[in-house]
Amino acid sequence: MEFRVLGSLQVVDGSCDLTPSAAKVRAVLAMLVLRHNQIVSTRELIDELWGERPPATALATLHTYVYKLRKMIGTGGPASVVTKPYGYLLATSPETIDVYRFERLVADGWSALERDEPEHATDALFHALALWRGPALSNLAAGELLSAQITRLEESRLRALQLRLDADLRLGRHRELISELKELIATHPLNEDFYAKLMTALYQSGRRGEALEVYQNLRQVLVGQLGLEPSPALCRLQQRLLSANPGLEHPGPEDPGLALREIPPRAPVQAPAPKAVRPAQLPPDIADFVGRGEVGDRIAATLAHTAHSGTAVRVICISGMPGVGETTLAVHAAHRARPDFPSGQFYAQLDGPGGGSDPGQVLAGFLLAAGMPPERIPADRDERSKLFRTWCSDRQVLIVLDDATGGAQIQPLLPGSPGCAVIVTSRSGLHGFAGAHVVELEPLSPGEGLELLGRIIGPERLEAERAAAERIVHLCGGLPLALRCAGSRLAASQGLTLASLAERLRDPRARLDNLCAAGLDVRAAFRAAYERLPDPERGLFRLLGLLRTPHVTVRQAGALLGCDPGHAERLLAGLAATSLLTAEPGPSDEIRHTIHDLLALYARESLDHELDAHLDPAPDRPATGAAAAHPPIRPVTLPAPAERVNGTATRVLGP
Length: 655
Hints:
By secondary structure, the protein is an alpha/beta fold. Helix 8 packs antiparallel against helix 9, helix 18 runs parallel beside helix 20 and helix 20 crosses helix 21.
């Protein structure tokens, strides 16, 4: 059985066409095929089929569609539709899907170009492009999620075509490419890469005048339609053609198709020029990544549009509470988008244990990774920023900035080319940063939490104690870091049952102690965020540990602090801005803030530690239990004595 998406959606089994005739059944199948061997949630499928206004019968209708797919595909064969918690999965060998074979052939061709083996590259890329039968999923009325996937596929097709043209140019097939490139320009009138390749092919065919005319045609199109001049790389290519430099040669592996290189005209034998440096600084992706399907598709679609989004660099900011997995998602999304950024990928952690990183030092590291000699790196931060933007100007690079503290920290690190993109993780969300696409990350759903736990400890062990596993996911509040801690404890001790761990986590006083394992520590993640808070926000955060519910209004916060509502509202907004609270409209248009259960436990620990420090400040008393995990807190004035705080909380929240 074979699944085809590179053209109209098709399912074939030998000579038998099994493609569903119903449009919505085809859409469900397309979602499952494109995410083969991964869970597609029912929520995503319903959103794709019916958008923002699904009918009341949406879930039942979806079950009917899946039943039809099962009848079509059959059971017990090489492919099957499997029901999973809160979703479905198409279990099949990747080889049965044409897009998998396409991507593998493109990667092979790209690697061959990197090794300067153009014959191998053009052969692999030719076979990759031969898999396309027309526009991707052309027989679907795609919704938002499938549209993003179609965009990604078409961008991959275009990139494969550009790589194949690069390989043909290196093989000297200039005359054969001229007609094809003219057709491509007619189809893609704003693609500068095709113009550059046509100029190259015409020049190498002895038609320099026509090559220069191509440049003028492009300039008229860009100025007339967009008010833009051609890129600096294309301008340099034009100047080289005008000067008829005898050292012009075919594009090399370090400059694939957008500009011609100059080499010294003398010295018949030279050592091979060093290949251009392509930074690859991304941390490794994790094998058991779970969930985030809809968010991941949105990020992928945003990155896929980067090169055609005008003149601005696309900035994506991922934010969320400590331990929710912003860094994991950023790295996963960056690895997924690597083919769209062939010039390299940079990574920097901006706020490590030692405090915020200086942008000047980060820029120096980026320039060194890009192959810049140390003696050419300026001492001034602004000059380093300008040099980095210049290096990026005719390249497509992806930059991941982890744990940024604010817009001022990332501004000097941004490239200037619209072919580049930046993914930022930040507790503050960077809502005020112009042009940033903000992604607010939430804890995992119960189904996703079970899947993550199962991947860590093994699905057989999870199914053997499924009820206990569900309790663990609930007590961890769906927080990925907490689930990884719990899973690591279980994986490290096969004698520890899930029921035993669930019983330990039931005790609120010991829960955070049990969510620490193998270098992972939920309490440490919370403490790092807590220590960044100003003193007034710290004081309110500690008092939130007194709440009997996870919700708090401005009126309740004012009563806890004994202050006016305006001041309480500002402090709550400060906590929400750092993702330690979530905010949503409440009754009577009052904003209601919510604190995660694990954060509430840490808040109560912090309050107890603060009160202990005031009641018994003896310096020689050894710290034990949760108090040992808190650093010494300098003396502060509490908003009210302990008796008044407790009394106020009781009056506001009830006994």
